[in-house]
Amino acid sequence: MAVSRGNGPSAIAAGELVLGGDLTVRRIGFGAMRITGAGVWGEPPDREAALAVLRRAVELDVNLIDTADSYGPEVSENLIAEALHPYPQGFVIATKGGFLRDGPGSWRADGRPERLRQACEASLRRLRLETIDLYQFHTVDRSVPFEDSVGAFAELRAEGKVRHVGLSNVNPDELERAQRIVPIASVQNRYNYANRDSEPLLEACERDGLGFIPWFPLGAGGLAGDERLEQIARAHAAAPAQVALAWLLARSPVMLPIPGTGSREHLEQNVAAASLRLNNELE
Predict the structure, then answer these.
(1) What's the pLDDT score for residue 108?
(2) How far apart are CA 151 and CA 45, in angstroms?
(3) Which fold has domain 11-275?
């Protein structure tokens, strides 16, 4: 098992992936949605614990943290800047724009170009960045022409506010249409051991050399009780969640899981999955 500067498991064991041709990241990141309050709304119940989890992620050699302006809203980005700025060399923050929040558990798409520009500029300020390394269109807004929304990302990239553009919650046709407008570095869709509906997107990412970032890589806890996962976990003296993450890493070289948690213990367990090698035990 690779050992990090902070002692313990290390994301280095997951290997690396190059996004957009020039952005090298380790293949297990950290999803910063769950460091906010209940319903992804408001401040976390223990702010110092949330800050400590972020700092521990860096100690474990995680060099990509995924967030969004809608997480909190604004809370996750603010915590990241408070905990980690000035950022270590080679550290990547991937954030997103395209959702509005009206309350706990409420998500409303807004892909208007003017709103996406406002969201990007606000994220730059909160994160204390001049350029966002990976800025992702969080969800397609069916009330706005898709090309208009993606065009806003292309403009932000041309202005140097965004280094690379990513998509989230898209289908293969939308990926193809977006690629005609601006280079796409990654796709973030729901995907895990139990839910493989986005298999066509994963195949497209493999074909085009794009990163595939599975959200809910652990099924938001929905994989608990899976007999096959539990059997393999026992054989490896591991937790079922670790087996599920190891399966993702083995599934494709473009896979970049970003398991999220507000717990230091679960963070360390997730990163340790990078060292787990399966022997074709899962399909």
Answers:
(1) 98
(2) 38
(3) TIM Barrel (3.20.20)
DSSP output for 150-214: HHHHHHHHHTTSEEEEEEES--HHHHHHHHTTS-EEEEEEE--SS--TTHHHHHHHHHHT-EEEE
Domain ranges across the chain:
11-275
> Percentage of the chain surpassing pLDDT 70?
96
Tokens describing residue 257: 């899981």
Nearest to 52 by CA among 256, 282, 268, 204: 268
Question: The tokens of 260 are what?
Answer: 């999220």
Instruction: Quote the CA–CA distance of 169 and 175 in Å, as a whole number.
Output: 10
With both helix axes pointing from N to C terminus, report the angle between 227-235 and 240-251 in degrees, rounded to the nearest 10.
Answer: 90
3-state secondary structure (DSSP) of residue 125: helix
**Predicted model pTM:** 0.95
Kindly provide the residue ranges of all beta strands, DSSP E only, lying in the chain, ordered along the sequence.
Answer: 16-19, 23-26, 30-31, 64-66, 92-97, 99-100, 108-109, 132-137, 162-168, 184-190, 211-215
**216 pLDDT higher than 60:** yes
CB distance 233 to 243 below 8 Å: yes
Active site residue 193: no
Residue 135 zone, left/alpha/beta (φ > 0; ψ -120 to 50; rest): beta
Catalytic residue (one of 71, 135, 191, 193): 71
